[in-house]
Design brief:
The complex is a heterodimer of chains A (about 260) and B (about 110).
Chain A (H helix, E strand, L loop, with lengths): L1 H14 L11 E3 L2 E2 L2 E2 L2 E2 H20 L9 H21 L7 H17 L12 H23 L17 H43 L5 H38 L2
Chain B lengths: L7 H14 L4 H42 L4 H40 L1
The chains are: A mainly alpha (about 260), B mainly alpha (about 110).
Amino acid sequence: MHADTQNLSTKASQKIHSPLHQFEIKALMPLHIGKYDVSFTNASVFMVLTVLFILIFFTGALHKKRIIPTKFQLMAEMLYGFVAQQLEETAGKEGKIYFPFVFSLFLFILGANLLGMVPYAYTVTSQIIVTFSLAMLVFVVITCVGILRHGRDFITYFMPSGVPKVLFPLIVPIELISYLSRPVSLSIRLFANMMAGHTMLKVFAIFTVVMGMWGVAPLVLNIVLTVFEIMVAILQAYVFTILTCIYLHDAIHLH
Amino acid sequence: MKNQNPTEEEVLSEKIALFRKKPVLFPQKFSQDTGKKQAVSFFRVGSEFVSAIIASVLLGLGVDAIFETQPFGILGFFIMGSIAGFLNIFRILRKMNDESASKTENETDAHL
C-alpha cells in the first residue's frame, strides 16, 4: 500500500513540472566565444520576438496615417502620447530629447511583460540579468547625462543643500550608496514582480490539475490572478519608465 | 444650412468642437494622476530599502576582497546602506505627503 502511494506520487511529480521550471534557460544554438557562453537561448528568442512584435505593431498601425485614426493607430498614438506626457511632466521640457530612449525602454518592457502572459511563452523580464542590464543601461545613460550637462558640478548631487560641511564625510558616502542602489532597486522590482506573479499562476495551475473535481476553485482564482498579472505587467513597465524619468529629472536639474 | 454629405474632416471637426464644449473636470484628472504617482511610490517603498542594503553589502564585500579588511568593510557598508535605505524611504514618503497635501488643497479650491 505504502509502495503504491509512493509510486503514484512519483508518477504525479514526473508529470507536473516545478513552478520554477518555466524560468529555465535552454540553449537552442550552443555557442562559445573563448570561455564565454554566448548561446542563443529561449530567452534570446523571446527578446527578438518582443522587438519584432513592437516593430510589426507600429509599422502596421502607422503604415497608412489617417486623420480619423484606426483602432491600432489610436493605440500607437495613445502609447506615444502617454509616454511623452509622462516624460514632460516628470523630467520637464529639457527631458524631451531623451524621449526615444525612454519610449524604447517602455515598449520593450511592456512588450516582454505582455508576451510573457501568452501560454507557453517565456517571460524575459523574469530573469534578473535582463532587468539588471536594462537598469544598468538607464544608470549609465543618466550618469553620462548628468556629467555631460554639469561637468564637475555633478558631484554636488551627492552634497544635499542645507547640510553643514562637517557632516559631508558621513553624508556623501550615504548619498553615493543611495545613488548606486538605483539599478539594484529598478532591476529587483521588475524581476521580483514578474517572477512572483508567474510562479503563483503556475502553483494554482498545478492545484487545478492535482485537485481533480475540486480544482475549479483554484481555476477561478487563476483567472482572477491572470487579470491581476496583466495589470502588474502594464504597471511595472510604467513604474520602470516613470522612475527613469525621475532619475533623468535629477540628472538634468541636479535634485 | 448644414452640409448634407460632410467629409471625414468635417465630422471630426464637429466631434472635436462638441468635445471641447464639455466641462473639463480638472480635479478628477488631477486625482487620477496623483493615484498613478502614489502607486509608483508604493512600489518604490517596497524595494528601495532592500536594494540600498544589497548594493552596500556588495560594495563592502568588494572593499574587503581588495583591501583584506574583513569584516569591517561589509559591516561599515551594511550600516551605511541601512541609513541610505531609510533616507530613501523618508524621501519617498515626504514626497507622497507633499503630493497628497497639494491634492487636498486643489480639491478645496475647486469646491470653493
